[in-house]
Each structure stands twice: as C-alpha cells, then as structure tokens.
Amino acid sequence: MRTFNKLKKVAMMPYPKNTNEEAKANKARKPKPPPSFVSRFTTTFSSMARKPLLKQTLATLFLFFVLYAIFNAFFHPTDSSAFDAAATFSSASSVLLSAGTTKSLYVKVFLYDLPRRFTSGVIHHHTLARGSGGVGGSASRATPDDVADALKYPGHQHMAEWYLFADLSRAESERAGSGSPVVRVADPEEADLFFVPFFSSLSLIVNPVRPPGSNSGLEKPVYSDEENQEALVEWLEKQEYWKRNNGRDHVIVASDPNAMYRVIDRVRNAVLLVSDFGRLRPDQGSLVKDVVVPYSHRIRTYPGDVGVEDRKTLLFFMGNRYRKEGGKIRDLLFQILENEKDVIIKHGAQSRESRRAASHGMHTSKFCLHPAGDTPSACRLFDAIVSLCIPVIVSDNIELPFEDTIDYRKIAVFVETSSAIKPGHLLSKLRAVTPDRVLEYQKKLKEVKRYFEYEEPDGTINEIWRQVSKKLPLIKLMINREKRLFGKEVECSCVCTNQTAVIRTL
Fold first, then answer.
1. Signed CA dihedral, 237, 111, 97, 382: sign only
2. CB-based contact 291:271 (threshold 8 Å)
3. Is 285 within 8 Å of 499 (Cβ atoms)?
4. What DSSP character marks residue 190?
5. Which residues in the chain show pLDDT less than 70?
6. Residues with Cβ < 8 Å from 253, sequence gap 6 or more?
7. How far is 333 from 419, CA to CA, in rounded Å?
8. CB atoms within 10 A of CB 406
9. What is the pLDDT of residue 83?
C-alpha cells in the first residue's frame, strides 16, 4: 500500500514550471536514465491537465485504474487455485457431457424378467417350427444366461429386439466404457425407464406358412403369436410399475410392421421402437413419442474403401417385385428399368443364395434402388448403406432412423414417386451425377455406416439408447400432466395427434 501511495502522490504532482534557475540546475545534474513507466504516465496526465475538466477527470480515473491494476499484479499475485479449480470443473463437465462417464448422467433402465414364454420360449418354438429339436427346459422363467447360452436367436431383419436385450443382459462391468447412455439397475424404484424384452418380431414369424390345401389348418397351431401378445399385456397390466404411470415409461420393441398388432392400442402409451409408421394410426405411433430403428442388414459390410473403378453398374436392385399397398411402385419401376444396359434389377426372395448375389451386386454398383415395400421402409436401404452403395429412395412417406444425427441428403438421392415412374427421368438424374460427387456420397456413407451396424461397439445399439433417452423429458411431462387432470383418462397428448406433432384444425 505504501508503494501505491507513492505512485499516487507522483501522479497528483503538478507539472513544474521551467524557470531559468531550474534550467541551470538541470544542466549541472548528471544525465538521468530513461523515464520510468510511472513517470511516463505522470507526464501524459500532466499534459491532459490542460484539457477541459471532463476530459481531465476521465483521464485521472483511467490512470488510477491502471496504477491499481499494476500494484495488484506485482504485490498481490492472484491465487490461481480457485481459477484452476474452476477450469478443472469446466473441463471435466464438458468431458462428462460429451462422453457420459458419470452414473448421474445415465438414464437408468430396469430390465423386466419376463416369463419364459415371451423370451427363450419364442426362440424354442421358432427352432421347432424350422425342423430342429431346439433346446427345451422345465424352468418357468428365463434368465439372460438361459437365452444367451442355451438357445441361439435366429438371424432376420428385425433383430433389434435381440441386440437390445443382449446389451442389457451383459454384466455392468462389461458395459462400462462402451459409450452407452443407459445403465441397467436392479431396483425398479431407481429406474427412469422399463424395458420389456418380448421378442415380438420373432414371435410373428414362428409358425411356418402352411401349403395351400393342407388339412393341418383345421388343427390349432402349437404356437400362437396372438395369444402371446395378449398374454404379455395381461402380465404387464398386473405389474405395479406399469400401472403407476399407465405404461408411459416402458419401452417395447415392435420393429416388424405387424408386430404387436393385436394389442397395439393397449401398449400405445409406451415408447415403441418401430421400423416405420406404415401400419400404425397417428394415435398409436408418433415421431414425438416413439423411435425409428433401422433394420439389421442382411448382407456383408463392404470391406473396401471409397472409389468408382470397381463399381461398373449404375443402379442395382434385388428383391420382391410384387408388393401390396405402397409397394406397387416396384412393379412399375421394374417395367421401366429392367431392359437398361447399366442397370441390374432382379426379382428375388430372402435366401442365403439371394443374399450372396445381393452382396455382390451392391458392392459393385454406384447406386442402389430403395423403393417402398408393403410399408415405406425396407431392409435394402441399410444393406446399401453398409455397402457404400448410394441409396436411391423412392418412398414418399418414409421415416428414417436417427435424423437428428444424420442428414440423409448427404448420403442418399431422393426421388419423388410421381417423377420416378416417368420413363427416362430416374436414370438421367443418376447419370448426371459426376464421379467426384459419387465419391462425396461414399465418404459420407463411410462416416455414418457405424450407426447401422448392430454389432459395432459404439454403433446402432448405443444410438438407439440415445434416442430413447431423449424421450425421457417428454415422458415425465406426460406423466405429471396426467396426474393433475383429476383422474381424467387421456387417450393421447395433443403432441401425438399425428406423426408430425402438428395440431391440425379443420
């Protein structure tokens, strides 16, 4: 403080008059060193003293501020511990928010231990229906180990239900560090969400199709998907945590468009994981409430890098030519494209041989056609993505997975149905795409394809859980809203009146 007073005193000294006596005395003195930092400020201030009073006052305040700052910097150094602590906290917070490395940031999920008939029982009956003895067992309930070790879940295009169940069934020590935004909890009281691991898509395809004229149709089938659906809902409706919030905080996989069709109205409050909304009414499914999940691709992932040299075919498609409803576009496209020289378009059903042919075709083509099937989406879109084959989407009402993360315009070509069926339009559009533009599409495909790889460590499963986690604020809003409505039954929130969440008025 003594130093500060000295500096202040120097700063306030009036500018001395240059008399003859003082000049003589100065000549007699020895030369002085260059003026100090403080003396330069003093000189500046003294010159300002001749300015009007307002400017002088402002200059004085400024000088005092500078001198005070200099004094504190040299004689009272800042204690950096507080700053370091703040910086450490800030840095840690940013890491935690991006990587989700603290339990408090995880969404807590309780995995229901369903009766065996809804999990391993479905796999068992599917195995029997396909002519194998399968693995039986007298246990009335299944554990994750029962399903993982005793029975093999069969591969098909709606395997999300299996991968999600298998992910939660792993020991938490194995899941730690996987990047998953959810953590499994053993106590349902701690849970934010409840996962119902019914294999609804597999259940739908358990019974083999009987040949026409078969008398076996008169007999009651050994397995009934409809009975299983109803039994599941009856079981759920008895559970305390389903009744507590009317099922709103429950997650159910119904990725096959026909899965859960018998009981969909009884579970529509839950977060439904679907492939699209083609078979759901607007009051049953919504982009606001539910999550669109990708089909599991059925062909090999392309092992090579981007490039056009080995992709001699312009456009490729292999699949069922004749479909119902929106899929009628396929037959029209066949008629337009099947005789084009640089196009391969084939009719083919699901089989091991068809998948091999499709893998080769997609890996050697620049563009892969994705017309609507019985519903707007189909597995070939995701086969194309992992093949680095640019999808050509001809499906006006398609909903796509993870659109808050992926800009599909950068990885796919969209063609309106009415334009695609005009002769010459589709191919002229594709032929106009330059090789450099093809490479740009491929690079983007390579960047995002992990989102469509169910077995990728930080792939599809983690992204599905992220999408589910984002529904939690809306779920809590709906639960709290319903509790204040004096017990009035609410069929659905106004945000679910249609798929776009826009309230339409007549």
1. negative
2. yes
3. yes
4. G
5. 1-104, 132-150, 208-221, 324-327, 486-506
6. 160, 161, 164, 196, 197, 198, 200, 201, 259, 272, 273, 293
7. 11
8. 19
9. 29
CA distance 267 to 313: 46
* CA atoms of 97 and 100, how far apart (whole Å): 5
Same domain, 227 and 337: no
Q: Residue 64: how many CB atoms within 10 A of its CB?
A: 15
Are residues 221 and 242 in contact, defined by beta-carbon separation less than 8 angstroms?
Answer: no
Looking up tokens 């594709």 gives: 430
The Cα–Cα gap between 399 and 328 comes to 19
Instruction: Note whether residue 87 is domain-resident.
Output: no
Question: Phi/psi of residue 29, each to 5°?
Answer: -75, 160
Give pairs for 455-463: CB < 8 Å, separation 24+.
455/163, 457/178, 457/179, 458/178, 458/179, 460/160, 460/163, 460/293, 460/294, 460/296, 461/163, 461/164, 461/167, 461/180, 462/178, 462/179, 462/180, 462/181, 463/401, 463/402, 463/405
Please report the beta strands in 330-379, taking only residues with DSSP state E, as ranges in sequence order. Answer: 343-347, 365-371
| Tokens at 424, concatenated | 């010459």
Structural domain range at position 394: 313-453
DSSP 176: T
Question: Per-residue pLDDT tens for 171-185?
Answer: 988 888 889 999 999
DSSP assignment of 126-159 equals HHHHTT--------SB--HHIIIII--PPP-TTT
If one counts the domains in the chain, the total is: 3
pLDDT confidence of residue 262: 95
Distance CA 4, CA 74 (A): 11
Residue with tokens 């699949």: 319
Tokens coding 167: 């992910």
Backbone angles phi, psi at 115, to 5 degrees: -55, 150
Length of the chain: 506
For residue range 283-300, list pLDDT tens digits in order.
999 999 999 999 999 889
> What confidence score (pLDDT) does residue 352 get?
81
CB 161 within 8 A of CB 200: yes
Position 80 in a domain: no
Cβ atoms of 124 and 154 closer than 8 Å: no
Secondary structure of 299-318 in HEC code, one letter for each residue: CCCCCCCCCCCCCCEEEEEE
Same domain, 172 and 59: no
Q: Cα separation of 317 and 222, whole Å?
A: 38
Q: What is the pLDDT of residues 86-115, one digit of tens each?
A: 333 233 333 333 333 444 589 999 999 999
CATH of the domain at 368: 3.40.50.2000
Between strands 107-111 and 271-274, the pairing is unpaired
